[in-house]
Amino acid sequence: MSILEVQAVSKAFGGIQALDDCSLVVEQGTITGLIGPNGSGKTTLFNVITGYERVDTGEIRFDGRAITGETPARIFGLGIGRTFQLTRIFPHLTVLENMHVALPRNIGGLLKHWGSSQEQRQAMDLLDFVSLTSLKNEPAGNLSYGQKKLLEFALILVAQPQMILLDEPAGGVNPTMVNELARGIRTLNRQKNITFLVVEHNMEFVMGLCHMVNVMHRGTKIAEGPPQAVRKNPAVLDAYLGV
Amino acid sequence: MKALRTLGLLALLILVLVFPVLISPNNVVTDMAVFTLIYAMAATGWNIFSGYTGYISIGHAVYFGVGAYTLALICQYWNIPGGYLPFLLLPLVGLVAGTFAIPLGFIALRVRKYAFAVTTIALMFIFQLLAYNLRGITNGSLGLYLPPPPWSSDIIDLPFYYVTFILLLVSIGVSWRIRHSKYGLGLLAIRDDEDRAFGLGVKTGPYKLVAYVVSTIFVGMAGGMFVYFIGTIFPQFTFDPIVDVNLTTIAFLGGLGTLAGPLIGAVLVVPLQQWLTLQFGGSSLNLILFGSFLLVILLVMPRGIVPTLQSKWLSWKASRLKGARVSATRQERPALVDRKEG
């Protein structure tokens, strides 16, 4: 069963056709990779799925319902979390405060102190999951690059999403940590049945982690399949190596 | 540590309360004190919006003026005599300013950051022009007069001082409540990365507008208090760019977005400004001296007094604890991630 369907989506920025009649399907419960050379439209695809950009034409369906043109907040609420290529956390807030920004709020509790016990436990559990507990009172801007990525990851877990889009999660993270990250993703996928769509240039990471891989080139999908098959696909080799 | 802090705050409170009685009758000093408190309240209000969200408003003089004219007009139409009654009208005055802020804030908040700042300045000048030209309401450049307070000249400042102090405490309370609430956390998130906050479900539009309106209520009450204290009201001294410059200077100097910043800023800026004017006003040397003072502070503490001292204090504490902590944590958990650059 598919959880996300992108149907014939196009998006242009001025003269650049970032997405050109792009279609792809992500199956429920999988870890799906999205690879392709620089400028092939991977991040733009993430942006239109999560509502940060509007599509020119085409439709996006999540869990059976059309989400084309919805706001980022609404899409986050529906259950799609995402991380950014350049990590976006709140640098002047502490690590713990960052977590509480993402925790769902109801209008009655707005003026209460943000650290109620139940929320606090939820936030601390997630910080524990990404091993940031000891840094909870540190301003997030002081964290290292890798730690910021972990924090961003924890941030989106707060809303208990059904699906997570990761934009280059392993970029700039050291090898030990990359393995740790892959293990975390697998755990969430298996235990909480979260579907992942992962953009990544680290091929070892993608091939080891993903059940399915989609390959993009010049704004559209050119291949899909299990990692081993995609690796040998002539169209893919052409896109990466050819002209 | 905590007891020491409570004790310090209590001592400060008592000092502020007995200060005018000790100094009285010295109207030069008590005048300064009243202006300081008025500006401390206005800057605390301003900080609730601009400090927390990072949207710098250079047009809150609109609400200072609206508050001022509202009080003057109410007193005129209802023939309200000088005394304590105008003080009781101040909450109403604040609400009127807040009501003006709903549509104006809605318009100004269509744009962000620098464009927002420019829009707010434009609003301020539009209101100044209106005050000059709507003569039927404002009496134009001839101005309006407020009922003179009935108290004798050696204690006249005291009621102003204490009532403003109460309002200041209310503004600090509101600011504190917001700063530590889930709502305030949303405002601070907007300051850091508005789009990201929006993406995480923070309703940025209503969040900003509510903070804007709340902040104008206090600036409006400050405007009302200001003209009642002065006794007269003219367009150029209420819808006045200097009010905006003072508010931003006070908040930036003390520390943007901190609770104590606007208070410390007001206590430093307002008396210094007035004292310099008294001493050197004739030769305009006061402006040069005041400017130099601001430059020195900017040079030494570019982020404002409170944040600079805070980080100094934290790093001093960290350096004292360092020896013990490094050995404990580093062994427990090998560095999982890249060290911080540099």
Give the SSE map:
The complex is a heterodimer of chains A (243) and B (342).
Chain A: E1 2-13, E2 16-27, E3 31-35, H1 42-49, E4 57-62, E5 65-66, H2 72-78, E6 80-82, H3 95-102, H4 117-129, H5 145-157, E7 163-167, H6 175-191, E8 195-199, H7 203-209, E9 212-217, E10 220-225, H8 227-232, H9 234-241
Parallel strand pairs in A: 3-8, 3-9, 6-7, 7-8
Antiparallel strand pairs in A: 1-2, 1-4, 4-5, 9-10
Helix pairs in contact in A: 3-5
Chain B: H1 2-23, H2 27-53, H3 61-77, H4 85-108, H5 113-133, H6 135-138, E1 144-145, H7 157-179, H8 182-199, H9 204-230, E2 232-233, H10 235-238, H11 241-254, H12 261-280, H13 285-300, H14 305-332
Describe the structure.
The complex is a heterodimer of chains A (243) and B (342). With 243 residues, chain A is of the alpha/beta class. Chain A has one domain: Rossmann fold, CATH 3.40.50. Helix content of chain A is 36%, strand content 26%. Chain A has nine helices and ten strands. Chain A has helices at residues 42-49, 72-78, 95-102, 117-129, 145-157, 175-191, 203-209, 227-232, 234-241; strands spanning 2-13, 16-27, 31-35, 57-62, 65-66, 80-82, 163-167, 195-199, 212-217, 220-225. A six-stranded mixed β-sheet of chain A has the order 6-7-8-3-9-10, sandwiched between helices. Chain A has a four-stranded antiparallel β-sheet with strand order 2-1-4-5, covered by helices on one side. In chain A, strand 9 and strand 10 form a beta hairpin. The model of chain A has no long low-confidence stretch (mean pLDDT 86). Chain B is mainly α. Chain B has one domain (21-326): ABC transporter involved in vitamin B12 uptake, BtuC (Orthogonal Bundle). In chain B, 77% of the residues lie in helices and 1% in strands. Chain B has 14 helices and two strands, in the order ααααααβαααβααααα. Chain B has helices at 2-23, 27-53, 61-77, 85-108, 113-133, 135-138, 157-179, 182-199, 204-230, 235-238, 241-254, 261-280, 285-300, 305-332, and strands at residues 144-145, 232-233. In chain B, strands 1-2 form a two-stranded antiparallel sheet. The longest helix of chain B has 28 residues, at 305-332. Chain B is globular and about 65 Å long. The two termini of chain B are 35 Å apart. The model of chain B is unreliable at 326-342 (pLDDT under 50). The A-B interface holds A 50-52, 71-73, 76-77, 82, 84, 88-93, 97, 100-102, 104-105, 109-114, 131, 134, 142-147, 150, 155, 159, 172-174, 176-177, 180 and B 177-178, 180-186, 188-189, 191-193, 195-203, 329, 333, 336-341.
